[in-house]
Design a protein that fits this description.
single chain, about 170 residues, alpha+beta, 2 domains, six-stranded antiparallel sheet, three-stranded antiparallel sheet, about 25% helix, about 30% strand
């Protein structure tokens, strides 16, 4: 279909989420307190979910979902992490796959740009890369352009797993 393919990484995703409904205090580690110039290591009110909280990924997903729906995308009925963009007549213009703070975005050149513009303003991104410039990595897979379309390889990811589990 000759769609553009983009990879995007949401910057400090959990901190872009909604404030927590509960009151939760955390104690800064001594090194962090020193860096901030705070004596000792005081307790601080945690306003937003942070990495390590068991419910933080779910809270971030609900926030990301709300923002993508507000951008005019619809959630796929079988995959709650896949969002679709349609034209008025139901023609599929593009898709956004979400995995924690990473997005794989693809769509029709021109027609889908309205959606990508909305997405760019809905989130603060650390990176926004095009497959036209270089291969992309998403969920451990290497995505590249080929003569006949697009290839997906997990070869590097699998090799990494082998070295992680088999020292030497």
């Amino acid at each position: 279909m000759q769609w553009h393919v983009l990879g995007a990484d949401v910057k400090t995703a959990f901190l872009q989420g909604s404030p927590q409904d509960r009151v939760l205090y955390v104690q800064l580690p001594p090194d962090a307190a020193r860096l901030l110039g705070i004596p000792d290591h005081p307790c601080m009110l945690l306003r937003k979910p942070m990495y390590g909280q068991t419910d933080a990924p779910r809270a971030w997903y609900l926030e990301a979902k709300a923002r993508l729906l507000k951008c005019g995308l619809t959630m796929h009925p079988l995959d709650p992490c896949l969002f679709l963009a349609h034209a008025g007549a139901g023609k599929l213009l593009g898709m956004v796959s979400v995995h924690v703070d990473d997005m794989l975005i693809t769509g029709s050149p021109g027609e889908f740009s309205t959606f990508t513009d909305r997405i760019k303003t809905a989130f603060e991104f650390r990176s926004w890369k095009s497959l036209d410039d270089a291969p992309l990595t998403y969920c451990g897979g290497q995505i590249a352009r080929a003569e006949q379309g697009i290839t997906l390889s997990f070869q590097d990811y699998l090799k990494k797993g082998e070295t992680d589990h088999h020292p030497g």
